[in-house]
Design brief:
By secondary structure, this protein is mainly β. Helices cover about 15% and strands about 40% of the residues. It has a 22-stranded antiparallel barrel. It has a 5-stranded mixed sheet with strand order 10-15-16-13-14. A 5-stranded mixed sheet has the order 35-36-41-40-37. The protein is elongated, with a radius of gyration of 30 Å.
Length: about 900
Amino acid sequence: MNLKAVSALIFSYYSICFTCSGQSPDVLVNGEIRDDATNELLPGATVLAKDNTMGTITDNRGQFQLILSPIKDSLNLYISYIGYESSKVKIDSFTTYLEIRLKSNQLIANEVVVTASRINERILESPVSILKLDPIAIRLTASENFYTALSNYKGVDILTNSILYKTINTRGFNNSANLRMVQLVDGINNSLIGLGWPLGNVLGPTDLDVERVELIPGAASALYGANAFNGLIYISTKDPFSYPGLSVQIKNGINRLGNTSTSAAWYTDMQLRYAQAINKHLGFKVNLGYIKGSDWVVTDSSDLDYHVSLANRGANDPGRDAVNIYGDEVVAPLPLAVNSVYVSRTGYYIKDLMDNTSYSFKVNGSVNYKLTNTLQLSDAFSFAQATVRFNNQFDLKNIKLYSNKLELSGDNFFVRGSIAADDLGDTYNSKYLALIINNRWKQNKSWFSDFRKAYSGLIENVAENDFEAARDYADIGRLVPGTLAFDHVKDSLKALPFGKGSKVIDHSSRYYFQGEYNFSQLIKSVSLIAGADYSISNLKSDSSIFIDTPGHPIFFNQYAVYAQATKKIFRDRLKLLASLRLDKIDIYKGVWSPRLAAVFHPDDENYIRASFQTGFRLPGPQDLYNDIDLGPQHLLGGLPMVDAPYQVHYHSFTYESQSLFSDTVRNYLLRNPGLLDSAISKYKELLMAAPYGYIKPEKIQTFELGYQRLWNNGKLYTDIDYFHNKYTNLISQVKLIKPGVGGPENDSITSAAYAIYASNYVTYVIPANAFNIVNVDGIEASVSYAFPKGFLLSGNLTFIRSNITPEKLLPGLRTPPLKSNVTLSKTNAFRNIGFMINWRWTDAIARWDNLNDITNIDNSLPAVNIIDAEVSYHFTKLNTTLKIGASNLFNYYHQDYPGGSSIGGIYYVSFLYEIFKLRP
């Protein structure tokens, strides 16, 4: 099926919807909803006629109009509003106007979630820890957007790649890419297919269209499959029937205040949402969003040169490899009298290689058609384009993601199909760009030769034994940032694919199909759901990053079936759950993911939960199929078919042993000139064979025990849980050395040693499974108290401990041992004024990572204290809310990871205009 066929199908579907849409409604019910204590009208409250499957929300004046099918005898209306107790009102065909009062009850314990068990259930009865961001929390958040606000919850870490691109991680992991979490938008994975992970919410829905966000901070593979390994983020958007009307939000702000390395910059966020129920059958919505801002800057100049001690690093180190400079990674030894000194090429600052502007443009929407009171057909489309930084290395420039979903859903089932396609646009690797700019101007061999001549006193008018003078001589004619020559070369190389330039090409796509059925109406003794999904992935990089070739993309299929049974016993006081899922991908055997759980509540105030489950993560597309020759190193996937032309696996040496061997032999020869054979014979045993095999899926076993309690008639809510995660086969990147001749075998190690000493080798970077079993234990606790008049005070504390040591190959397990949040909020504190203030504290990290390019510096991070705050005022007659806020109020500059950008405060003013049009 191609895009033209999909477009034709969508057009036909829209035509049928509009042709078949019904006429005027039979019953019109008007009403208003008020706070029972303050008599305040409540805008945004939900009114649902469940037997009629019709619903709406109150407008800015707390009033509603509901169009219903003919009522035979009577009908129940269900009214709900975040922070209030739900209410049920009976109406009949003679009802014309209702005045409904709700009692305040702001505790999250009474909220309903879906994600934990794929069925509606109260948070109190969820078998695993689950966090929820509701519409009121989204509206109140002091962060610049709802996605960033997730960092205020227990067990959640956030890492900033770009001013627009935030990565959420949980329970120990804290990667710049959340490879071990799945992010779904209305059931569809919104990750970039070729990269294998989502870009935060850069390409997701706008704040105005988000109904709720549910986050499971732990394994969820039993129901959501591969890669829901360490968590799941499920974003649900608003449907046009329940949330009609027009919403416009304009947010302007400023960031980078007080940064001596750059100037302050403006931040703009504009959003529009329009939704309408044309009649009781047909509804639609359209969303537009545009965000633009200037990125944080990298000011860390730490020296990564591992050839010298920490005390000898810095600006005077001839082999300096600075964090915020690229191109200086290329080094060569300079033999001196006693030992060798490593010299690096002169590099370029990141700010001279990457654009500092980030933006995101989104347009999405849906057409929804109710075939019957319980059966709905919907078509949702989405397009997004953005430019953001990733890991201070990739400039993800003008990337695009297209998607379309067709879904048929009823009370007890759904069937959906979707197509998604991504385009990395003008994305390039700035680190590699610096390397090839240097090499384009002067080959590495020539540059180091000029340096040696100058340092040795062979160049007239250049001081001998002077590192700075030798560098100045070797750099004569160098391309200088800011000149036309530099810009011309940089722009031309950015436009050429890997092998010739630094551009990353990816036009991958994915087809996805899923169905699920709830057997509760057929089987009364047990609640049973079952489902299946199937996806076809198409990796197309035109040989830029994968082993595909032009016209011959990589296809692979993934299948899954799952089921869950739930049984309540002991007068419904004990709920037992059992889940099982089987996932199969073409290149691996099937993987089973079971989950057993129980929830016991001896009374209505105490809830105890326990669960055990397993999960897994498939290696990402780049882990599997990479084949990128970057010159100084070659990135290679971990499959036998990828390795076959190169024979790297089982025929290579570790990078660390090569460095030790080369340095030792070189220093030996300085003291014993001409004795190369002796040196090789004496030190060849220093070369260690690389022990890494072909890549395998990661696995996890996890146990969780939790306790929730309601106190003081439900005004106080506490939740505490303990979890234990056991990881095996964790995947990380390792460097290997493949000599031009010879290998690790006993009969060929001598020839390999000669080749390595003569620099006759290739450096490969491959994915490898860790041999260590990793154990992570954690305790997460939260508390909320509802004060009189609707004030809500909440807080949480997270403690995590692992068995990580620096010498272990453990990717991304780098989280502070302690972190906490405290929040005080009120939707309407006094005369239409609302506010929120949040304090977030993160403990110091003594050691961030154990990978070579980071452990070479002092990679500790200090403790961080951040305060976010906002105050809002609602102009009732103007249907407008003015909000003034600050993310990082006191502009405390900090790094989320060593070598990362310096992140300060964002100060903003926003205007939200809303009109709820409820009648056609």
